[in-house]
Amino acid sequence: MPLISFARGAPAPECLAPKLIADCAREAIERGGPAVLSYGPGGGYLPLREWLAGRHGVQPGRVILTNGSLQGFVFLAQRIAGSGGRVLVEAPTYDRPLKILAALGVEIVALPMDEEGLDPDALERELAAGPPPAFLYTIPTFQNPTGRTLSAERRRRIAELTERHDLLVLEDDPYGLVRYEGEAPPLLFDLEGGERVVYTSSFSKTVAPGVRVGYFVLPEGLAAAIEEVAVSTYISPPALTQATVHELIRRGAFEPNLERVCGLLRTRRDAMLAALAREFPAGTSWSRPEGGYFLWVTFPEGVDAGELLVRALEAGVAFVPGADFFPAASGEGAGAARFAFSFESPERIAEGVARLAALL
Ligand SMILES: Cc1ncc(COP(=O)(O)O)c(C=O)c1O
User: Fold this and answer.
1) How far is CA 9 from CA 81, 166, 295, in A?
2) What's this model's pTM, rounded to 2 decimal places?
3) What strands, in cross-sheet order, belong to the sheet with 117-118?
């Protein structure tokens, strides 16, 4: 049996809809004609920006489409943190931004989180004591890597702190719409009014990562600055995939497709939760996300996730050790891991968890 991967933060192949996307691509070209095959605005395909602007209650000029949201993260980090800046993050957090920030020479300040997400008291202490940071990077909903969601009350407190300390926040929300159950808490962006909170999301989890369509909702001046960086990096992003996503929305296929994707992912999440409860030894704990791709496993005292991974790979199972989601050399996360349930089938999830349980 090929490697069972709980490491890949990717959708199961069944989540993708090649026929639907092919139809939308054809229609997008036929309707849009040369405009979708030529260079376009640096901020991306206007009809999609207009639709997103309507959803977020802003002018279209404040919406910038990038090649996946990670590209926009790089632009923003370069622009507002540069080398020598300080950036606050919740820890653990998505590993790629940590690497991008480290490569830029940014000082990364890790703030603690718990089951309810980022700790606002720790944020407040840091804002009162430390030099002003360039921005706070947070993933409030179905966080990568923990699957945790910031409570509504904490969102209100963080929105208040943002105003009081004139703090710029990057709210990264690629998983928010990938909700299988429960009520969505308000966005930080909406609570704060979108002046100091930059919102970013992506069609990677709701449509397909291969279309590489991410977006940012920025204050006007910052939107213009990021658009300039985009123009001098790649002239304009691919109108074809952005028009394809727009066509999918235009014909009313976005919501039904998302519902189908959520159904497939919920089955996988349930399979992983059931397998963990059945197989894992006492002393192990894990998060129970209401959506997204990941859950966070804390192993019994004394288990080192890095060492377990070596044996897990021999047994044909992969996951990402917790330490990867903390700033380098912090020494944290050794006894934890991120398990992605998004990629494998329910049967293979059960098999993978059983193999890991045997090693524990
Ligand atoms: C929290 C978070 N932000 C951003 C991204 C990047 O997404 P995109 O495919 O839009 O670049 C990911 C991808 O897994 C993610 O987990």
Assistant:
1) 27, 34, 11
2) 0.97
3) 63-67, 213-217, 197-202, 169-172, 135-138, 86-91, 107-114, 117-118
Span 180-222, pLDDT tens digits: 999 999 999 999 999 999 999 999 999 999 999 999 999 999 9
176 lines ligand 1 (CB under 6 A): no
Q: Phi first, then psi: what are they for 63, rounded to 5°?
A: -105, 125
Q: Which two tokens stand for residue 156?
A: 């209100």
Q: Which of 88, 153, 87, 160 is nearest to 117 (CA)?
A: 153
Q: Are 211 and 65 in contact (CB under 8 A)?
A: no
What is the spatial distance between Cα 14 and Cα 162, in angstroms, rounded to a whole number? 40
Instruction: Say if ligand 1 is within 6 A of residue 174 CB.
Output: yes
What does residue 50 show for φ and ψ, rounded to 5 degrees? -65, -40
Taking all residues of the chain, what is their mean pLDDT, rounded to a whole number? 97
Three-state DSSP at 175 gives coil
Concatenate the DSSP letters of all residues of 10-42 into one string.
S--GGG--HHHHHHHHHHHHHHHGGGGGS---T
Ranges in the chain, pLDDT < 50: none
| Probe residue for ligand 1, chosen from 66, 94, 99 as the CB with the greatest number of ligand atoms within 8 Å | 94
